[in-house]
Here is the input.
Amino acid sequence: MQKFLVAIVGVIFLAVGVFMYIRNNNLVKNCTVETEATVVDMKQDFNTDGDGSTYMYTPILEYKVGEDTIRVTMDKSSSTPAYNIDEKITVLYNPNKVKEFIVKGEKSSSIFSIVFIALGVFVTGYGITVALKKN
Here is the structure.
């Protein structure tokens, strides 16, 4: 079992990457209605890691769907605010689930999933190769 540990880690990376890729593609497919959203607030979380402590900023958006105002929190945080309060950004939302949205033109989710898939394939292949050579 220990021989295949690296390959198992690679399979986990591959599975996470495929899951993220499918989720992102479903969002792109389902989020078809374009609207303008406003950054109304910035959620701040204190983060402590090996490099020190920092605040992470997560934008909170509002956009109109008919007469309703929809308030959503982005799923991406950064150590410096990606947007300013009152900044307008274009989003695409799912007309069947109006709180499901993507920022128009943003490619980081698909790139991140492709990196995970590539890393998973490489690590899995390496792990299997190393495990079979030991036999």
User: Anything to note?
Assistant: The mean pLDDT is 90.
